[in-house]
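Here's what a typical entry looks like (Purple acid phosphatase):
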Amino acid sequence: MGYSSSVALLALLMSIVVLCNGGKTSTYVRNLIEKPVDMPLDSDAFAIPPGYNAPQQVHITQGDLVGQAMIISWVTVDEPGSNEVIYWSDSSLQNFTAEGQVFTYTYYNYTSGFIHHTTITNLEFNTTYYYEVGIGNTTRQFWLITPPKVGRDVSYTFGIIGDLGQTFDSNVTLTHYQNSKGKTLLYVGDLSYADDYPNHDNGETQPFKPFSNRYHTPYEASDSTEPFYYSIKRGPAHIIVLASYSAFGSSTLQYKWLQAELPKVNRSETSWLIVLMHAPWYNSYNNHYMEGESMRVVFESLFVKYKVDIVFAGHVHAYERSERVSNDKYNITNNICIPVNDLSALVYITNGDGGNLEGLATMKQPQPSYSAYREASFGHGTFDIKNRTHAHYSWNRNQDGYVVEAAKLWLFNRYWNPHDDSTTHKH
C-alpha cells in the first residue's frame, strides 16, 4: 500500500466515532498533528514595552469577596519605581490613588524583577475603570470592568482556560477567548511550562515560590489561612478555589476551611456554586489517570451534600465532560469503586487544553460510563449563567486557526432546578 493510501486509510479510521461503554468520543483530529512549538522569545507577543522602567506583565485579580476591589500586579526591571496606582471610573472625573507593595525572589541562580501588587478598593459594581501604573517613570494606562452586584438571577459569562504555556497554539487560544463573551477568566492552573528553559526547578526547595510572589489572591477575605485555597463571589456565582497540591486530609487546614466555607454559601444570594481545582477527579485519559482519586475520596461527599453545580479542572491536556456521577461511598478499602449516575451530583469538566508544548493527552479505551464527551484538542470553555436555574456551557475548539463550538449543553442548577440534564449519547 502506497504512502498516500496509508494516510487516507488512517484518516478514515481516525474519523470514525468511537462508541464504547460511556458517552461520545469526538471524531475530530487536528490537521496539525505535530507537537506544539513555543513562540520565540523575540516574538511580538513578548515585546517589552518601551520606556525606562516601563511596567510589564500587568495582570489583575479580584481583590475582595464580592468584586469591589481589584489587585493590580505588574513588574518593573530597572528599579522598583512607584507602587502607586491611579484610577478613576468612566463616569467620574475624580482620581483615586492606592499604594501597594513590591516583592522580589530568588530561584536558584535567578533573581526576579520588582513585582508590584496594589489593591484598589471601593469600586462600584458594573463600572468601567481606568488605571495607571509606572507613575514617575513610564506610565501605562489600562482599563477593567467590575462585575455586577452579587445576585441570584444576575446573568454573567465566565471563560475557562488551563495549562496554557506559550506556544503558537496557546496564542490562538487566548485570541479566541478575547473574542468570546467571557467577562472573567477562571484559570485552572499550570501556566509557564518553563521546563526547557534555564533556571527551572534547579534545586529549589520552597514550593510555589514564583506563584506566591507573582500572583496574589484575596484568600483572607474568605477566612482562608493560605493563598492557594479561598473563595470569592462574582455576580450569580460563589466560586471556591481548591489546591490539589496542598494537604487536603480531614485533619488539614484546607479541609477544615472547606468544611466551614460550604455552609456559608447562600444560594438565595449566589445561586450557582462553582469549584476550581487543577487535578481532575474523573478522567478517562492515560495522562494523570486517577491522580485526583485521594482528594476525591476526602471531598466528594461534601460536594454532593452542598449541591455544588460544576467543577472545572485542568492538568490533563485535553477536554472532557462527565455525566452527573458520584462515587462517594468508596473509601479505598471497601471495593465499591464504580461511579454511579446521581442527579444530586455535579458535572466535572476538564479544560487542560490551553495549548502548551507538552502536547495532547491520549485516551483510555473503552470510554468509561462516567465520561459524557471527550476530545484531545486545544481550546477554551465558556460558562454562561443565564439566571438561577439555567446556564449554558460551550467548549470551543481551536480548529485550523478558527474557533469552532465543538461541544455545548444546558446545565440545570442543583439547588434551584435539580432536574435531569444528563446528556447520554449527546455532546
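Helices lie at 3-14, 168-178, 209-214, 253-261, 293-305.

More examples are in the samples folder.
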